Task: inverse folding
C-alpha cells in the first residue's frame, strides 16, 4: 500500500497532520489558497486577517454553516474534495436565499491529528477548485486539532437593498415554486445508510449542492417574487419558515413536486412514493420561491439553465401545510416526517 | 442538586439540548440574540442570512477563529459566559491586529446533546453581553450536534485602506513594542493544569482577552507604526510572523517584557523566571508593534488607558530571535519553548 501511494503521491505527503505540524500545514495552505481570485482581495490569507474591497452601494449578506462528521456526513461518503465543495456551496446557498451573490468565504477545519497531510491537501484543492470555478475569494481560515472532524464555512455576499428577499411575506393567494429537482441528497443518504450497496461514490455530484445564485436574475425576470428561502432542511420543514407565526397555510400538490431520477430509483427499491421522499428529504439547496400572486396557468417555467415548478399555493390559515395527491388530501405517516413535525 | 437548580433556574430549563430540540434552541437564540445592536444591521439572525450596511469608503477586514474543548479550553475553566466572551474577543483581536475595528460576528457552536439548555442560555447571554458592551452586531450562527464542544467565531471589521497594518514590513533599526502585560493566560493555564489548586475560577478575567481596538488610535498617535500583529501564539512564536523570510533578526530584552503580576506569582511557585513564562506563553491577545524607527529614549510610553513597553529591536539577520538578559545573550531551554522552535 505504501509503495502504491509512493507512486501516486510524493512519499513525504504520506504523513499525518500531527507529523507535519501546524506550521507545515499552514505553509501548504498559504501556498495553495493565498491567491487573489478577484481584484477585490487586498490582503489574502497569511496575515492576521484578510482585507477585502466590499462593493459600495451594496449591502453585506453574511452567513455561517457548520458540518460535523457523524452528524452531517462521513468523509468516505463525500471524499475530501467533495467535503470542501459541499461545505462551501451549502453555506453559499444561504446567501442566494436572501437574494444575494456570494463573494468569498472563510473556512475553519477541526481535524484529528491522524489525518493524512495529502488528504488535507485534497481538501484544500477542493476549496481552490470551488473558489476558482465561482470566482469566490478565500478570505481566511483556521485549522485546529479536534477529536472529531468538523468544517465551518462563513460566506459573505452582496445584494442591492431592493433585491433582498426575506423568508416571510407570503400572502394568501400567492403561488409556491421550487427550482431544479428535489430528493437527490436524501436519496444518496438512504442509499449510503440503508441500501447497503457499498459506499457512496466519492465526488458523486449528488452530494454537491447546486449554485443557484447564477440563475437568480433569470428567476426574477420570470417570476415576480415576494419571499424566498433555500431547501436545506427539506420542503416539509422549510415551508415552516415561510408560514411561521402568520395567518396562512400552504397547500402542496405532491404530484407537482419535481423529483430527481436518482430519487425515483431509490424510492422504487424501498417501495416508497418518490414525491414523499422528495418532500421530506433535506439538503437539496434548491430555492423555495413565493410568487407575488398566482399569474401562470402552467406548472413549469423554463428560465435560463433551470426549470421552475409550481408546487402549491398559500391560503388563509394558521401556519399548517396541507398535502394533496391528485386533488385529494393525504397524510404522510413516514416516521421521519413525524419526527420533523414535532 | 436538582432541587437547588430548581430554585436557581426555572425548572423547565434543567433539560438537555437534545430534549429541547433544534427548534426550541433556535427560538431561545432568536429571542436573545436577534437584536440590532447598531443601526447597520438591516436583517438580524432568524432569516437565511443577516444583512448589514457596511460603511462605504472602508475596507472589509475578516477573520475566523475556532476553539475546541480539550485542545484549547475546558468548559469548567471558563464557564459558559466566559467561553462566549473569550471566543469572540480572541477572534476580534485579529481584526485589531490588521489595524481594523470589529463591527460584528457570527458564531458556530458544535455541542453534545447532553448539554443543558440553561448552560447554552448562559453562553448566549455571554455573547449578548459582549455584543452590547462593544457595540458588535450578531450576524448569524449555527448550532450543530457534535460529540465534542467547539466554537468557531467569524468577525468582520473595517479599516480605511491607509490604516491597514500588515505583519511584515519591519526594517533593521525599528523598535519593537507590546501593549499591556504578558503571561496572564499562560499562567492561568499552568495554574489550572499543573498547580492543582482546584479549578480555575469561572469568568476569571485572566481568561478574557483585552479589547485593544479601542486604544488603536491612541497608539497611532504615540508611535509611528510600520507593522503589527497580535500575540495569540505567544511572543516566542508570533515574532516569527514579523521576521519570516526577511533578512532581519529581533533582539528581545527579557528584562523589558512587561509581566503580569499573576504570572509573577505562578512563576514564583514554579521557580521559573516570570519573563520567560511571559515570553513563551500564548493567548495574551496583546499587540506586538513595530515602530517605524527607534525614536524614544524611554522603554515605557503611556497612551490613553494603556501602557506600551519597548521590548527590543530589529537588526539585519536571517529571521532569528536573540534573547538578552541584562545585556547578556541567553537561551531558554524550556521544553515548551523547544517545541515551539521546531
Result:
Amino acid at each position: 500500500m505504501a509503495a502504491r501511494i509512493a507512486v501516486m503521491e510524493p512519499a513525504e505527503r504520506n504523513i499525518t497532520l500531527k507529523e507535519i505540524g501546524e506550521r507545515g500545514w499552514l505553509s501548504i495552505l498559504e501556498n495553495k489558497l493565498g491567491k487573489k481570485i478577484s481584484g477585490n482581495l487586498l490582503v489574502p490569507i497569511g496575515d492576521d486577517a484578510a482585507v477585502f474591497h466590499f462593493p459600495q452601494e451594496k449591502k453585506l449578506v453574511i452567513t455561517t454553516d457548520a458540518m460535523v462528521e457523524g452528524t452531517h456526513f462521513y468523509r468516505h461518503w463525500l471524499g475530501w474534495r467533495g467535503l470542501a465543495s459541499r461545505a462551501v456551496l451549502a453555506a453559499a446557498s444561504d446567501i442566494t436565499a436572501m437574494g444575494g451573490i456570494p463573494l468569498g468565504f472563510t473556512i475553519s477545519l477541526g481535524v484529528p491529528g491522524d489525518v493524512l497531510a495529502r488528504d488535507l491537501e485534497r481538501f484544500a484543492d477542493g476549496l481552490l477548485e470551488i473558489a476558482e470555478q465561482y470566482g469566490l475569494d478565500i478570505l481566511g481560515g483556521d485549522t485546529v486539532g479536534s477529536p472529531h472532524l468538523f468544517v465551518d464555512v462563513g460566506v459573505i455576499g452582496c445584494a442591492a437593498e431592493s433585491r433582498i428577499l426575506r423568508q416571510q411575506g407570503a400572502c394568501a393567494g400567492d403561488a409556491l415554486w421550487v427550482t431544479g429537482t428535489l430528493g437527490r441528497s436524501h436519496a444518496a443518504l438512504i442509499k449510503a445508510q440503508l441500501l447497503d450497496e457499498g459506499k457512496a461514490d466519492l465526488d458523486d455530484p449528488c452530494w454537491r449542492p447546486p449554485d443557484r445564485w447564477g440563475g437568480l436574475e433569470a428567476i426574477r425576470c420570470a417570476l415576480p417574487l415576494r419571499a424566498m428561502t433555500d431547501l436545506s432542511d427539506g420542503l416539509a420543514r422549510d415551508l415552516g419558515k415561510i408560514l411561521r407565526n402568520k395567518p396562512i397555510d400552504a397547500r402542496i400538490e405532491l404530484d407537482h413536486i419535481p423529483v430527481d431520477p436518482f430519487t425515483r430509483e431509490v424510492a422504487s427499491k424501498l417501495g416508497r412514493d418518490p414525491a414523499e421522499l422528495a418532500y421530506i428529504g433535506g439538503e437539496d439547496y434548491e430555492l423555495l420561491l413565493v410568487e407575488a400572486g398566482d399569474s401562470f396557468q402552467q406548472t413549469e417555467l423554463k428560465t435560463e439553465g433551470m426549470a421552475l415548478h409550481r408546487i402549491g399555493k398559500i391560503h388563509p390559515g394558521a401556519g399548517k401545510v396541507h398535502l394533496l395527491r391528485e386533488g385529494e388530501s393525504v397524510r404522510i405517516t413516514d416516521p421521519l416526517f413525524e419526527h420533523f413535525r414535532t
Observations:
- The domain at 165-341 of chain A is CATH 3.90.650.10 (Phosphoribosyl-aminoimidazole Synthetase; Chain A, domain 2).
- Residues 195 and 269 of chain A are 8 Å apart (CA to CA).
- DSSP finds ten helices and 14 strands in chain A.
- The first helix of chain A runs from residue 2 to 8.
